[in-house]
Amino acid sequence: MRPSSYLFEPGFFRRSLGEFKRFAKLATTLESIRVPMTPYHLLDFTDPETITTCKVMSDADMGGFSTVQLDQVSATASEPAHMRFHGSISIDLPPDRPDIQRSGYAAWRNKDRGPTLFGKSLWDVDPYLYLALRFKSDGRKYFVNVQTESIVHTDIHQHRLYSRRPREWETVFLRWADFVRTNHGEVVEPQNEMMTQKVRTLGIGLTDRVPGPFELCVANMWTTNRMEDVDAYDKEDPS
Question: Tens of pLDDT along 147-158?
Answer without folding.
Answer: 999 888 899 999
